[in-house]
Amino acid sequence: MVMWVFGYGSLIWKAGFNFDERIVGFIKDYRRVFYQGSTDHRGTPEFPGRTVTLEPAEGEVCWGAAYKISKKEDQEIALEHLEVREKQYDKKAYLHFFTEPTGTTPALSGVMVYIASPDKKLNVNYLGPASIEDIAKQIVQAKGPSGPNREYLFKLEEALLQFECKDKHVSDLANEVRRIISERELTAS
C-alpha cells in the first residue's frame, strides 16, 4: 500500500523523510494562510512565529508537492517524523491532488495533508487572520529552534516561484517583511 503526503509549507523544500517520488501539483478548494502559531519551530511560547495552514476556500487552489512513500518501513519512519514535526496541526485530511491546471480528474486520491484548524480548543496555537502588516511584524520578530520565522517565509516564497506558482498571500507577506527589514536597517544606520 503506497502512502502519499502533500506538503504546502516547509515540506515543499525539506521533507525530512525518505520518499520514492515527488510530484508538483495542487489541491482544490483550499488556500494557504499564515494563521498558525509556531511555538516549537519558528517561534517560542513567549513569541510565536507564524506558519501556514489551509482554510477552505471554494474555487481556489493551493500548490505544493506530493511525496510517494512505498516501503512500509519508510512509511512508519515518515509518519513518526511527521507526527512530531506537525504536532501543532490537529487535523489530517485525505484529499484529491491535481497536476493539470485545467484538469478535472485528480492525478491522485487520498493524499494525506496536515491542517491546523481554527478550533482553539483543539489547536491552542491557532492565531487566525490579521492584516498583512501585523503578520509581517510578527514574522520579522519571531525565531525558534528551526531558525528565524522570516527564513520560513522566504524559503516558501522561493519554492513556490520554482513551481512558477503565484500565491498572493505569500508574496504580499514576503514583500512586507522585506520592507520592514529594510526600513529598520535604514533607521539603525
Model description:
With 189 residues, the chain is α+β, with helices and mostly antiparallel strands. It has one domain (3-188): Gamma-glutamyl cyclotransferase-like (Hypothetical upf0131 protein ytfp), CATH 3.10.490.10. 31% of the residues lie in helices and 33% in strands. The protein has 4 helices and 7 strands. The strands form 3 sheets. A 3-stranded antiparallel β-sheet has the order 1-3-2. It has a two-stranded antiparallel ribbon with strand order 4-5. It has a two-stranded antiparallel ribbon with strand order 6-7. A hairpin with a 2-residue loop joins strand 6 (143-144) and strand 7 (147-148). The longest helix has 21 residues, at 168-188. The radius of gyration is 17 Å and the shape is globular. The termini are far apart. The model has no long low-confidence stretch (mean pLDDT 96). It is an enzyme of class 4 (lyase). One of its GO terms (molecular function) is glutathione specific gamma-glutamylcyclotransferase activity.
CATH architectural arrangement = Roll
Query: How many discrete structural domains?
Result: 1
Mean pLDDT: 96
Unreliable stretches (pLDDT < 50, length at least 5) are none
Cα radius of gyration in angstroms: 17 Å
> Which class in CATH terms?
Alpha Beta
Q: Biggest sheet, in brief?
A: 3 strands, antiparallel
Classified in CATH, the superfamily is: Gamma-glutamyl cyclotransferase-like
| Record field, number of beta strands | 7
Number of helices: 4
Can you write the helix and strand succession as a string?
Answer: EEEHEEHEEHH
Outline type: globular
**Terminal residue distance:** 59 Å
Helix content: 25-40%
The assigned structural class equals alpha+beta
